[in-house]
Amino acid sequence: MLPYGRQTIEDVDIEAVTATLRSDWLTTGPQVDAFERDLAEWTGGVPVTVVSNGTAALHVAYAAAGIKPGDEVVTTPMTFVATASCATILGAKILFADVEEDTANLDPAAAAALTTERTKVIAAVDYAGHPAEYDELRKVADEVGALVLADAAHAIGGTYKGRFVGSLADLTTFSFFPTKNLTTAEGGGVAAADPELMKRARRFKGIGMIREEAEYANPNDGGWYYEVQEFGVNYRLPDVLCALGRAQLTRLGAFKARRTALRARYNELLADVPGLRLPVERDWVDPAYHLYPVRVLDGRRREVYDKLRAAGILVQVNYIPVYWHPAYAELGYQRGMCPNAEKFYAEELSLPLFPTLTENDQDRVVEALRTILG
Ligand SMILES: *Cc1c(COP(=O)(O)O)cnc(C)c1O
């Protein structure tokens, strides 16, 4: 069986985890701060707070942005549901803007057409790892005083115009799920350069607890004292998992290089397979690719999916347009709203891509596709 993505766990990871298990700290110890510091080396120095998973990261980011009922969020439908649903559960109204026809990233012009003075956040996704058009999105957001959020669950380790993912938006979220560019089993992070946003993110993920005396509303009652001024949740990432994340981060550069090489090899080997359209890359990005998304033309996506799965090649489809989910349909969202996204969904197939994928594995995928489509 060949999955579309999988983790790379080596002895250094196992040693890092077992050493932490033997230490005094299972959670909220030195590995958390160290992992956050290490992550900032991949965000161009932008501070990061780690959280329980990528969905939690989105919830924290929207909470830090102050999303409340009546606010509007403009986002892409070509993503995992959490990009939108984490704002919905805070009471926001979601406006789905269509994607660029080729990259499947949020189209800045489509986003601009939906922004109003109620828009609080424009949330882009770096689909497959390819950064969205952040300079254009920034202009759109500035016109209405909105924040830009990057759901970079696919994209840590990449750059856009020479700047790191993590430094491109006001708030950036990461996921460390096993199939992503690095893993902590479950885990995620929120990056923000603005100290006020970062403070709000840290408080929300930590039950709203405040321990800085200068910030207390009431007198300090003693060494045990803390205050809650705004409610929060517990989305802490334990020390044990932060140790795993640190070990993984030391190889993020190597993972990226391997993913890049495999992508280039797919591009070459698949170039002459009929009925396929291969992914594009803008000149100004240097992505760390999470997915290798091909387009299966002529209405044959379902057939190719079924035949590859039957051959033990566990391809995936990323993604069902978010507003197609019954939870959004019940809110009145209708199919047909974002034609580029719907067409992309109808054709998309994510081929196996992960650092330990061998060239033999890759040849097997290519040959299977050639047999089905040739
Ligand atoms: C994986 C993913 C998430 C959610 O991350 P989890 O760690 O699985 O909660 C959010 N957005 C996108 C685009 C993702 O791919």
Automatic annotation (TrEMBL):
GO molecular function: transaminase activity
Signal peptide range in chain numbering: none
Known cofactor(s): pyridoxal 5'-phosphate
Entry-linked InterPro entries: DegT/StrS_aminotransferase, PyrdxlP-dep_Trfase, PyrdxlP-dep_Trfase_major, PyrdxlP-dep_Trfase_small
KW Methyltransferase (keyword) present: no
Record key words, sorted: Aminotransferase, Pyridoxal phosphate, Transferase
One Pfam family here: DegT_DnrJ_EryC1
Membrane spanning stretches: none
UniProt similarity note: Belongs to the DegT/DnrJ/EryC1 family.
Name by which UniProt lists this protein: DegT/DnrJ/EryC1/StrS family aminotransferase
